[in-house]
Amino acid sequence: MSDISTIGELVASSNSSIKTGPFGTKLKSSEYGKAGVPVISVGEIGHGRITLHEKTPRVSDAVTGRMPEYLLQEGDIVFARKGGVERSAIVRANESGYFLGSDGIRLRLDGRYDPRFIAYQFLTKQHQNWMLQNAGGTTMPSLNEGVIKRIPILVAPLAEQKRIAGILGALDDKIELNRKMNETLEQMAMALFKSWFVDFDPVQAKAAGRQPAGMDKATADLFPDSFVETEIGDIPRGWTLTLFSEIADIDKGLSYKGEGLADEGGLPMINLGCFTGRGIFNSERIKRYTGEYRERHLIKEGDLVIANTDMTQKRTIIGSPAIIPKLEGESKILFTHHTFVARFKPGYEIWRQYVFFTLLKPEFREIAEGFSTGTTVLALPRDGLSKYRFCLPDESLLEKFSIQISPILSAIEANNRQSRSLGATRDTLLPKLLAIAT
Known about the structure:
The protein has helices at residues 7-12, 61-66, 115-121, 125-134, 145-150, 158-197, 201-207, 217-220, 244-247, 352-358, 362-371, 383-386, 395-437; strands at 3-6, 17-20, 37-40, 47-48, 58-59, 77-80, 88-90, 99-100, 104-108, 152-155, 227-230, 233-236, 240-243, 248-252, 261-262, 267-270, 287-289, 298-299, 304-307, 309-310, 321-323, 333-335, 339-344, 378-379, 389-392. By secondary structure, it is of the alpha+beta class. The strands form 8 sheets. It has a 5-stranded mixed sheet. It has a 5-stranded mixed sheet with strand order 15-17-16-22-18, with no helix packed on it. A hairpin with a 7-residue loop joins strand 6 (77-80) and strand 7. Helix 3 (115-121) packs across helix 6 and helix 6 (158-197) runs antiparallel to helix 13 (395-437). It is globular and about 75 Å long. The chain starts with a strand and ends with a helix.
C-alpha cells in the first residue's frame, strides 16, 4: 500500500542519510584543480542528470582520501543548494566516486527504496514548485538539510517502485543515448570549424607548399595560401574583419512576471535554462507564458540566441549561443530578458551558422567572461557582444562549410526531436504512474 511521507521520515526510519558538501576550511580553494575527481555542485546538477563541463573543478585523490564521506555513490540524489534549488540529479554508475561540492546536498537511500523512483518525483512540476516556495533566502533561494527533510514524497511498495522506475528509465536511457550521440556529432562539427576557421589548417598547408590533408582540390582552392597581420592576429589573406554590431543588431528579451508563467497554454518562452554552455539547445527547460509581451520579444526557428546572464558564478552559461529548433505546433516563441537574439542585417543572414560556431570559441568565452559583471548573478552587457571583432571568410567557402556541416547538424536536430518526444512521453506518464501507485 502506498503512502505519503517526507524525506525526513524516510531517513529517520531507515539507514538513509542526508549530507551537505564540505563547508569552510574543510576544502580550501587552493585544493581545486583541472585534473582529478570531478566536484559536483550547482553548475553540474541539472534536471535529473549530472553534466560535467570545462569549468567543472576537480580535486586530487589526496583530498578524497581525506574526506571519503563526501564521495558519491550510484543511486545518490544530489540537490543544488543555491542558484537552482528546483534542480536535482541521480548519480549513475559511471559517476560513482565523484565528489560532493560545498554547494550540493546529497540524499542516500537504503535498500527499501528505489532511488530512481524517488528521483523521478523530484522532476515533477509539483515538486519543483514546492522547492521554490519552501527554499529560504531573500536575494537567492537556498536549500539546507531541514528543507530537504520536509519534502513530501510518495512511498509505494518496492516492487511497484521498481516497475515505475523501469518504465520511465527505458525512455531516459534512449534520451541519454541520443545525448551521447550528439556529443560525438558536436565534436565532429567543432573539429571541422576549428580546423578551417580557427587553426586555419588548409591555409597553413598551402603556405608550406602542401595540399591540405583530406580535402579535394575544389575545396582547397577556396583557401588562400598566405596570412595578413591584423589587430586580432594573423588571418587568411582576403578575409575581412568585422564587428558583431556591423552584421547584426542585438535585442533583449521579455522581462516577464512570475504570475504569467503556466504549465499549459500561452506561448513557449526561451529562458536561461535552455542553454547548456555547449551550443546545444535544451528544449526540456522551455517555459510557458500567458502574460503580455511585445513583438520585439518574439523569435523564430533558426534564430541565434545568446545567454546574457549566469547564476552559477562558474561562467559556463554566460555568452553561450544556441540556435532555436523547430518547435512543433508553435507559431510564436518568446524569449526572456536573460537572453539576447541576434537580428542579422539584410544580406548577412547567411553568416548565422558561422557566427554561432564563432561564439563557441574559447576566445569569445574569455571575452564574455571579462565583460561580465555582478556578484551573485553575472550579467553580460550588449557591448560584450556588439564589440566582439572576428574575421569573415569568402562566401563561397562559407557555402562549402555549410554543405559539409549541414548533415551533422540535421542529425543532431533529429536526435533532439526524438528526445523531446520521449521526454514529453516520460513527463506525461510520470504523474499518471504516480497516481496509479497511490
